[in-house]
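ok, trying the design again with the full structure, not the truncated one.
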């Protein structure tokens, strides 16, 4: 296990491209951290700086309190798993797992024990004599994880390790990697563009935006219920959060015929006067009946929409609808799916309503507890 500390870490590539801006973070021993964001936002660059494969342009990076900017990759106590499994095709699973240890000149007996132990953890015991070409994608990825695991490192680095797998295998491997992490305990930094992967696996998530800017660092719960800005609010959650943009007048916004009083949701509604804001709510947060009235946190907005399209998923129905000339997605119980073309009334509890300042993109301060 290892403790990592980043202080104003920046990466500027030799061609002048500034790929990571002022990365600041402390990672505790044994944490599972996901770096998430769209392609090109600097996730791999950050991972490669941790691995020592990419030079840190400015700032400081510490491993267990030791400045590691100039430390060689070998001395960092890391193992990396990539998207391409990078297995040796002419070696068996057994040989692939033991390869690194063989290179280090470790005794064959010790290697044998470690290979068998690792194969057991990963459910590969019955496949040890097979060659990679005779394995499924998921099994290959398990061997790749096993090669990293066998080395008993302090830090695990994974770069989109599941993107070559089909959807079902991804879900299985997701929980397997999580279980391995729980039993091994190495500090793990995991890069993905898939917010579901990040939400389900991480202790904490780092959301990055193109240009290499960190948007928010927090637990999955914090990011989902307390997004700092519009980007995080829209990135975390599937289908994404709905936004209705409008200018505040008299503490209210208008969208088409719709009028919404922001007073119950924001702390200081006067400060928003004349500003462009985004009123937001998650598709799954809506209610079909009015929330109990009473205290500030209990009531809600009543909205009316016109249903464009419905998609039955089984557990839920996605409803694509139009509210005050804005397209929204709502998730409803499939037994209460509205007819396409019909008018559909729904409620957004105050506790599930967000307001963002469109200029700063930041969440407007609210006293509401998101429950
Ligand atoms: P991600 O992993 O989030 O997809 P990367 O860290 O791979 O993003 O890349 C971040 C940005 O840095 C991208 O715009 C990419 O084109 C750029 N980049 C990556 N490697 C180099 C390089 N060697 N020289 C110049 N720019 C690079």
């Amino acid at each position: 296990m290892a403790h990592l500390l980043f202080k104003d870490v920046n990466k500027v590539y030799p061609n002048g491209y500034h790929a990571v801006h002022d990365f600041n973070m402390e990672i505790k021993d044994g944490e599972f951290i996901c770096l998430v964001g769209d392609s090109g936002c600097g996730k791999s660059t950050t991972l490669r700086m941790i691995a020592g494969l990419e030079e840190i342009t400015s700032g400081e990076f510490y491993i267990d309190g030791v400045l590691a900017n100039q430390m060689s990759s070998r001395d960092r106590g890391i193992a990396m798993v990539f998207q391409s499994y990078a297995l040796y095709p002419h070696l068996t699973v057994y040989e692939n797992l033991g390869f690194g240890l063989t290179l280090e000149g470790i005794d064959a007996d010790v290697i044998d024990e470690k290979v068998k132990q690792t194969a057991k953890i990963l459910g590969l015991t019955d496949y040890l004599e097979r060659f990679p070409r005779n394995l499924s994608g998921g099994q290959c990825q398990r061997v790749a994880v096993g090669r990293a695991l066998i080395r008993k490192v302090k830090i695990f680095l994974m770069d989109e390790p599941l993107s070559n797998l089909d959807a079902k295998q991804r879900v299985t491997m997701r929980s397997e990697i999580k279980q391995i992490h729980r039993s091994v305990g190495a500090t793990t930094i995991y890069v993905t563009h898939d917010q579901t992967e990040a939400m389900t696996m991480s202790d904490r998530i780092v959301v990055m935006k193109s240009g290499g800017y960190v948007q928010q660092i927090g637990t999955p719960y914090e990011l989902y219920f307390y997004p700092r800005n519009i980007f995080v609010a829209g990135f975390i959650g599937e289908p994404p959060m709905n936004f209705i943009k409008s200018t505040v007048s008299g503490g209210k916004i208008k969208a088409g015929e719709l009028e919404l009083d922001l007073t119950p949701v924001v702390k200081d509604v006067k400060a928003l006067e004349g500003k462009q804001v985004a009123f937001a709510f998650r598709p799954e947060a809506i209610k079909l009946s009015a929330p109990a009235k009473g205290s500030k946190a209990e009531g809600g907005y009543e909205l009316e929409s016109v249903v464009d399209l419905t998609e039955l998923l089984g557990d839920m129905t996605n409803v694509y609808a139009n509210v005050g000339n804005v397209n929204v997605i709502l998730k409803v119980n499939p037994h209460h799916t509205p007819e396409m073309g019909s008018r559909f009334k729904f409620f957004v509890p105050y506790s599930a309503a967000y307001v963002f300042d469109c200029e700063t993109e930041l969440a407007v301060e609210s006293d509401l507890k998101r429950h």
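Keeping the full-length input from now on. The chain has a mean pLDDT of 92.
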